[in-house]
Design goal:
The complex is a heterodimer of chains A (520) and B (358). With 520 residues, chain A is an alpha/beta fold. Chain A has 17 helices and 23 strands. In chain A, the strands form five sheets. In chain A, strands 13, 16, 19, 20, 21, 22 and 23 form a seven-stranded mixed β-sheet that branches. Chain A has a six-stranded mixed β-sheet with strand order 6-7-8-3-9-10, sandwiched between helices. In chain B, α4 crosses α9. Chain B has a single domain, classed as ABC transporter involved in vitamin B12 uptake, BtuC (Orthogonal Bundle), CATH 1.10.3470. With 358 residues, chain B is mainly alpha-helical. In chain B, β2 and β3 form a beta hairpin. Chain B is globular. Chain B is 69% helix and 4% strand. Classes of the chains: A alpha/beta (520), B mainly alpha (358). Chains A and B meet through α10, α11 and β18 of A and α9 and α10 of B.
Chain lengths: 520, 358
């Protein structure tokens, strides 16, 4: 029997104050698709960075093809046959696919040779990608394919994929999985990092579960349920979202009609005639592939970019021309996608971050003077109600982990009991346990009679939360329908920009969905 | 032995206040070495520059005289700097403020007195400084012109205006053709408190305290801090970037203008072409030495730079140091401050080269 492709023995890595990896040991067989599973902060990223030579272990041994190795840097890792596809792409939008690949390559090749080799790789794995297209005109799925091709050109023996599906439509995910299976069949091992459990069940042969930097278990995903794996990840039992039975939706509370907005920069997406209404007690989900106008929509709804008065109404009052501060006074709350520097100021204490948005509704300011005691009190209330891991209201927002900060931000808005809450990616980067708590808070808020709009790329989340759903694509929003009326396939097609044509094949979703808005 | 820099988990609060002291210490040591190498009595020079004025009660009035305008201007600038609004033209606002107050003084010169004249001069100075700083504010908010350039260039306009007024309209008719204004009347001059100095010395402390309260405790201060720390979060919090630019320039200008008329109606007692002494520029260093914090500006910034000014002057007389020595020490101080700032986010770790750390 052949050697393990990759073996880790007691790998340990400490950062000031944190033991990121604590004697981690596991092995990946040649040709296996091996999942590395864990909550945010479990140490997955640190571990793969050591395998790819970005970081170096303090202790322990990495063995590759049976031999102990030290990997000084990513270039050495690539030379050994280790490739990695990062979650965030490093591509130049203005350059072609070919030029982008050439820039990332260690060896110098003539453009003609390179193009020939790229076409070989594309043909071998059945990938479609035009080497001469400009990156700016490509969909996210195609951009990811560039990164994959870049890694495959090196004939890797081990390919590391870090959260590869978070930006893809369901059809693009299916296609990616076919590519990965073909790759594994040719003998390349794949280390697949994700917290999307159904994907791991569908794709991976084996999974190693990390919690708090330690390996807490191994499993064969096909033999487990998503729930049992989630419980291994969080080390406890998972809560279900409790929706009150027989909920009736109230009259339209938040009505958007003919909301259009010019994109300001080259890569901004213009909003085109957006219209929907949300009733009291209703949760409306807005699905879509990243970069189709979600950010612009959230900014326009929250009032960070005011527009025409009549385009947005709250309880009949036109608020479309009001700025965010005035909208807050009328009962609007919002959570933008980016936490650091947008939803929160990293260098400020949690108490100050409470003042940022809750000062009006929670009376944290008295005649222009900040009531420091009340602000700290409200921050403390949020910390307790949402189980935020922080030393207290004086802790800086930047000292919290991403998931804990997200809990704090969500809590800060939810506890203001807004009439209408606009949320973008409510559980982005939040672990399963915390995500369940945030979902429950949203459902409870709706039960009190608030209207909620949830913009998310996570379809599982939207299915679990929403009463109704609409899909955004290239700045246009599909009509909303009750969530039960949608199938996953249909949402996928809408996300890919196919409106109503039922007989399209799955590969349609790989069409250049952002092309029109990005062309100059 | 190896020294390693290790990133701290949280920025050190203690180091925020300690590094300026470390910087002063390093400046004294290195300055002493440099001037010794140049053949001066280095240690005595460093002592004269940084310590002598502090331990000699006879120099304390001089310190207040130098520190008061620096503190007032720096406190005003710190508001803008906190919001990433870079008003480099405080010198010009200082000059224009002094000129406006002088205008009022000359217009009321023939009166027999009047309690309202001096307050009106001060008001004119503050308003003129604010109005002069409003020009970069308009250019920035309407036309997106960098306030760094516009405010700096307006300084030279203000100085030319001063020269023209001194050589023409405002020249003292009984001044033997010297280019300077009439001496202000007694009721147009700042009261002098013996043992303390002119009234602007205690007033500058009051202003620093007031600015501290506004910055630390009010929504306005919160807005300034938020715009500076995270502009997007400020917009999300409902704060207008434009209004922040306006207010921080106008307040900075008003305080510089007020400092200007305080100087004219205090130590100068008239307007002269030598009025711009660079306080507006030195105040930028003062603001950063004081960590853009009003109390720090008073204690660390204003005082330390006043000490180097006063100490530098006496070192010229007693030790024969060149006049540029003051500038060398001030520059070294800023250099060491910026260099030691890394200790706020990092700590030094000593470890023996052979063994690994436990």
């Amino acid at each position: 029997m052949s050697e393990d492709r990759l073996e880790l023995r007691g790998v340990t890595k400490a950062f000031p104050g944190v033991l990121a990896n604590d004697h981690v040991s596991f092995a990946v067989r040649p040709g296996a698709i091996h999942a590395l599973l864990g909550e945010n902060g479990a140490g997955k990223s640190t571990l793969v960075k050591m395998i790819y030579g970005v970081l170096h272990p303090d202790e322990g041994e990495i063995r590759f093809d049976g031999k102990p190795v030290t990997i000084p840097n990513p270039k050495a890792a690539r030379a050994m046959g280790i490739g990695m596809v990062f979650q965030h792409f490093s591509l130049f939008e203005a350059l072609s696919v070919l030029e982008n690949i050439a820039l990332g390559l260690d060896e110098r090749l003539s453009p003609a040779d390179l193009e020939r080799r790229i076409r070989e790789v594309l043909a071998r794995y059945g990938l479609t990608l035009d080497p001469h297209r400009t990156v700016a005109t490509l969909s996210v799925g195609e951009r990811q394919r560039i990164e994959i091709v870049r890694a495959l050109l090196l004939d890797p023996k081990l390919l590391i994929m870090d959260e590869p599906t978070s930006v893809l439509t369901p059809q693009e995910v299916t296609q990616l999985f076919e590519t990965l299976r073909a790759l594994a069949a040719s003998g390349c091992s794949i280390l697949y990092i994700s917290h999307k459990l159904h994907e791991i069940k569908a794709l991976c042969d084996k999974a190693t579960i990390l919690r708090g930097g330690k390996v807490v278990g191994d499993c064969v995903p096909a033999e487990e349920s998503s729930r049992s794996m989630a419980e291994m990840m969080i080390g406890g039992s998972l809560r279900d979202i409790k929706k009150a039975a027989g909920r009736t939706l109230g009259a339209p509370k938040f009505v958007v009609e003919g909301l259009s907005l010019e994109g300001t920069g080259d890569f901004d997406v213009a909003l085109k005639g957006i219209g929907f209404s949300v009733g009291a007690g209703e949760i409306l989900g807005i699905a879509g592939v990243a970069g189709n106008g979600q950010n612009e929509l959230v900014l326009a709804l929250s009032g960070e970019t005011p527009g025409e008065a009549a385009a947005v109404r709250l309880d009949g009052t036109p608020i479309g021309a009001l700025r965010i501060g005035e909208r807050r006074r009328l009962g609007l709350a919002a959570v933008p996608e980016e936490r650091n520097g947008h939803a929160a100021v990293p260098g400020f204490s949690l108490a100050d971050n409470a003042v940022l948005t809750a000062r009006g509704r929670k009376g944290l300011v008295n005649r222009g003077v900040i009531a420091a005691g009340k602000a700290a009190g409200y921050a403390e209330e949020v910390i307790r109600a949402f189980a935020v891991k922080a030393t207290g209201p004086a802790a800086t927002a930047g000292s919290l982990s991403g998931g804990n900060l997200q809990k704090f931000i969500m809590g800060r808005e939810v506890l203001q009991v807004p009439e209408i809450l606009i949320v973008s990616q409510p559980t982005w980067g939040v672990d399963a346990g915390a995500a369940a708590a945030i979902h429950q808070a949203l459902v409870d808020l709706a039960a009190r009679g608030s209207a909620i709009v949830v913009v998310s790329q996570d379809l599982d989340e939207l299915f679990a939360l929403s009463d109704s759903l609409a899909v955004i694509n290239e700045g246009r929003l599909s009509p909303k329908r009750p969530i039960a009326d949608f199938s996953l396939e249909e949402i996928g097609l809408l996300m890919g920009g196919v409106h109503g044509e039922a007989d399209q094949g799955a590969h349609v979703a790989a069409a250049p969905v952002v092309e029109a808005s990005h062309a100059h | 032995m190896l020294i390693e820099l290790e990133k701290r988990k949280e920025p050190s609060k203690a180091m925020v206040y300690l590094t300026p002291l470390i910087a002063v210490g390093l400046t004294m040591v290195v300055g002493a070495l440099i001037f010794s190498a140049l053949g001066y009595e280095g240690a005595r020079a460093a002592w004269a520059m940084f310590v002598a004025p502090l331990v000699d009660p006879g120099k304390w009035e001089d310190l207040g005289l130098k520190a008061a305008p620096l503190v007032m201007i720096a406190v005003g600038l710190s508001i803008g700097f906190r919001a990433n609004v870079w008003n480099i033209g405080a010198e010009g606002q200082y000059v224009v403020g002094g000129l406006a107050g002088t205008g009022v003084a000359l217009a009321t010169w023939h009166l027999d007195g009047g309690w309202w004249v001096l307050p009106l001069m001060c008001l004119a100075g503050a308003v003129a400084g604010a109005a002069y700083a409003a020009i970069p504010a308009i250019l920035r908010t309407r036309l997106n012109v960098s306030e760094i350039l516009s405010s700096l260039m307006l300084t030279y306009v203000a100085i030319q205006l001063l020269y023209w007024l001194m050589n023409g309209p405002w020249k003292d008719p009984e001044g033997f053709n010297f280019p300077q204004s009439r001496l202000f009347q007694d009721f147009q001059t700042l009261p002098f408190i013996s043992g303390v100095g002119y009234l602007n010395v205690p007033l500058s402390l009051v202003i620093a305290l007031a600015v501290w309260f506004v910055m630390a405790r009010t929504t306005f201060g919160f807005q300034i801090r938020t715009v500076g720390a995270a502009p997007q979060a400020a917009r999300y919090g409902g704060f207008s970037q434009e209004r922040t630019v306006w207010w921080s320039l106008v307040i900075g200008g008003a305080l510089a203008g007020l400092a200007g008329i305080f100087e004219a109606a205090g130590p100068f007692g008239q307007m002269v072409p030598q009025f711009p002494t660079g306080y507006g520029f030195t105040a930028i260093i003062v603001a950063f030495l004081g960590r853009l914090h009003p109390i720090g500006i008073v204690i660390l910034g204003g005082l330390v730079l006043a000490v180097t000014y006063v100490g530098g002057e006496s070192a010229q007389a007693t030790l024969g140091l060149p006049s540029s020595a003051t500038g060398v020490f001030q520059a070294m101080l800023l250099f060491f401050l910026l260099a030691t700032d890394i200790l706020i986010t990092h700590r030094l770790k000593w470890r023996r080269s052979a063994e690994g750390s436990a």
